Amino acid sequence: MPTVRCKVLFVLVVLAHHRRKVVHFNVTEHPTAQWTGQQIIEAFPWDTTPRYLLRDRDGIYGIQFQRRVESMGIEEVLTAPRSPWQNAFVERVTGSIRRECVDHVIVLNERHLKRLLTHYFDCYHRWRTHLSLQMDSPESRSVQPPAVGKVMQLPEVGGLHHHYERIAA
Q1: Are strands 52-55 and 75-78 parallel, antiparallel or unpaired?
Q2: Strands in the chain per DSSP E
């Protein structure tokens, strides 16, 4: 992700497959195996570690990362080389981030991108529907009957997206 000053920023996304929910993300200009390993610890505090971690074969997942994951009791499952379709959920969310968010904004710096993605993921979790979730969002929501009130358009992600809610007059 290039910034306004032509620096390249990297985004690590940890996704829970069952509800398409982004459990953790972070941004850095200089990714290392140690940084990536720390992100896994932050993604799964206390006793919330998953049994498996599906990942690609990027060099960022070096020996320090692998040791960290092993010490947490997580079994790594690697995709085949040059086979992004084997991790389709993450490829899909990465494409959504690009198409629905960062392609429409000039990123200033790490802090700006992190704030932008925080707002995007809030919208993604609460309002963006998914066919695989029966047109629900990752954080399930109830249907609002017409009796609740008038439909209002509310801005999300600085006006880049909107959601609609019934609000009592």
Answers
A1: parallel
A2: 10-16, 21-28, 52-55, 75-78, 150-156, 161-167
User: Which whole-number Å values give the CA distances from 133 to 20, 48, 122, 128, 157, in the listed order?
Assistant: 9, 23, 17, 11, 23
Q: Domain of 113: which CATH number?
A: 3.30.420.10
pLDDT digits (tens, 9 = 90+) for 64-114: 999 999 999 999 999 999 888 888 989 999 999 999 999 999 999 999 999
Specify if 162 maps to a domain. no
Residue 91 lies in a domain: yes
Closest Cα partner for 138 from 147, 127, 151? 127
Which two tokens mark 32? 């290392």
* Structural domains counted in the chain: 1
- Residue span of the structural domain in which 130 resides: 10-141
Written as one letter, the residue type at 145 is P
Strand partners, 76: 53
User: What type of residue is 100?
Assistant: E
Query: Is 61 within the bounds of a domain?
Result: yes
